[in-house]
Queue: 2 jobs
Job 1
Amino acid sequence: MKKLQKGHLDFLIQLGQNNNKPWFTENKPYFDGIFADVKSFFKEIYDAMQQYDNLELFHVHRIYRDVRFSKDKTPYKTYFGLHLGRTKPLLRGGYYINIEPGNCFVGGGFWEPNKEDLLRIRKEIAMDDSELRAIIQDEKFIEYFGALNGEELKTAPKGFDKEHPAIDLLRKKQFLVMRSFTDEEVLKPLFLEEAIKTFIAMRSFFDYMSDVLTTDVNGVSLYE
């Protein structure tokens, strides 16, 4: 079983202190070795997760930032990121790992649902929020994630009553879960196993969302 090394985090710290092209170019051979190690670690997680879910996407974020539309013009990311996508269209949701000194976490969910999907989710919640409530109030869910996170509107979305009893869920624009880890924890041999356990703990939430997003408001499948 692979594990992350202190040198992987140390490089990111150094990169944060020297986020410029000359320094990175000089240290590129060292980075290439580190990135290969981290990608191999991520690949082991991907392979293991195939036993528990159907995945179609294995994407390790590039270190190079797209600065065209960003106020932050530093050229390099100071984290390693992994995204695993479930097999669409029937399975929805994505898994994510962020390895960043002082900000390591395992998470997932629906980061930028399109307007059609967001409306469908809200309609389902407005009709009956009990199933989603049961999932996010489950003891295991709370143990791993605490609560359902994500950006929210300040008021009710258009077309929904601001006095609706599920307004706390209806205001959400994102539906995210996250479990934080310390730098020390991600360097332990058991982190790979803990990351997989954390992903598995998301399944009931993902499966609920998949059922919603693959049916109409009457519960009829959109893919038959």
Job 2
Amino acid sequence: GHKKAPMTFTPEAVKPTGPAGPPSKVLERALKLYDAEDYANASIELNKVIEGQSGDDEANKQRAEFFMGKTLFNMKYYSASLSYFDKIVQKGPNHRYYQKTLQWLASLSRFLPESAGVLEKIGKYTKADLDQPALEPVRDELYYLLGRYHYQKGNFKDAIDLFSSVPEKSEFYPKAKF
């Protein structure tokens, strides 16, 4: 009998190169359901993509992971949502949605207890990551949250730098000042 060729790559190691290929019909349907706010059915279709049943490429699987996090958030399954966003954070900047996940982490921090570990996930990002234009609406909150992360870790210099980046007009200014 002839030997099977060894697997030469692990999905984790695949870096997204260039744009994603066309999404499968399953992913297209999932995204349409998401846009229609039919989150229950969107989650079923997204799961097929994430599980590799739809034949989508890695880039589109990453898109499905990100949308699954958003779908579960919209269904108010905050812990489950966090676990999907956590997968993205673990993959780091190689994940196409690494930067976009930050604003969802900010939102989750409002709904989950501190023990859920949202701060630790935000702690993987740098201050430079927070300066991207898309994060403008939640930037003050993220400065504050990342500051808290560093404060808890005893990195007081970083914490002070982040706390003092929160502008006076922000609702997070009093907390940061404190």
